[in-house]
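> example.struct
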């Protein structure tokens, strides 16, 4: 008989935000224009053997350079949950865009899980095009190349199990080597999409986010997320402000800072404005 899979705690930590409009977030714009802020998260998966961190956010300097509202350093946010960067053994990088990979130098004892295809993309021929390169910070990419030369990058070619109950799944399209994470929890499998869907609405309406490498792959990635999750409410988008309302605070003192994703949602499913239909 197979041993029962461990159940992990999963948290989303909101570290930055920016004001934006609905038209900014969909290829082709949006007929119902209005405000649609973008929140920036890192995620942490806590098990008996320690914490796995998904994505590392950006630094205060990067926030200033890109005019984002920096709420707190992602590394400081992790401390609020009792996770010290120096103790983390495994960091999972969904991709290497500037808002997911900064702060890597603060995780001195970690190895970094990345799709090989993402490294090929971020160091490959398409980076001559500003349209595709502007989401990367070249020093981050070079930093990961240096870490690879030190043997600290675990480059994967497709689906892989990082630990029992934690698996990585290619969901490319937004970048060519994007991956999402599936985690076994007390409420079943939770799928941390990261940028495979920035907002619930991208996936719900099959309208990809405006930063795109391959639109067909982005649409297929929505199907991958659906296949991996027992219900749509087990999928966590990468930048949706609704996540902070949808799930309970990690603890009362972390209201507005961290929510617990292995808890049942405390707010109704989001509704598509075009149809009035529920997500389910
Ligand atoms: Zn991205």
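> example.seq
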């Amino acid at each position: 008989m197979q041993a029962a899979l461990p159940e992990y705690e999963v948290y989303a930590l909101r570290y930055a935000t920016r004001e934006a409009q609905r038209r900014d977030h969909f290829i082709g714009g949006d007929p119902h224009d209005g405000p649609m802020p973008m929140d920036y998260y890192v995620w942490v998966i806590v098990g008996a053997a320690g914490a796995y961190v998904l994505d590392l956010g950006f630094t205060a300097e990067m926030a200033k350079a890109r005019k984002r509202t920096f709420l707190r350093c992602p590394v400081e946010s992790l401390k609020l949950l009792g996770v010290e960067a120096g103790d983390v053994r495994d960091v999972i990088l969904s991709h290497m865009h500037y808002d997911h990979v900064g702060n890597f130098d603060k995780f001195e004892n970690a190895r970094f899980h990345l799709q090989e295809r993402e490294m090929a993309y971020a160091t490959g021929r398409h980076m001559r095009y500003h349209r595709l390169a502007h989401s990367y910070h070249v020093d981050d990419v070079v930093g990961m190349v240096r870490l690879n030369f030190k043997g600290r990058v675990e480059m994967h070619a497709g689906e892989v199990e990082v630990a029992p109950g934690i698996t990585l799944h290619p969901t490319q399209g937004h970048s060519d080597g994007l991956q999402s994470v599936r985690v076994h929890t007390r409420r079943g499998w939770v799928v941390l999409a990261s940028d495979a869907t920035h907002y619930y609405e991208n996936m719900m309406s099959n309208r990809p986010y405006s930063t795109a490498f391959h639109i067909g792959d982005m649409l297929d990635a929505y199907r991958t997320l659906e296949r991996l999750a027992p219900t749509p409410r087990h999928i966590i988008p990468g930048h949706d402000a609704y996540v902070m309302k949808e799930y309970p605070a990690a603890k009362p003192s972390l209201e507005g800072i961290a929510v617990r994703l292995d808890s049942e949602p405390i707010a109704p499913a989001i509704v598509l404005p075009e149809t009035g239909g529920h997500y389910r």
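> remarks
The mean pLDDT is 94.
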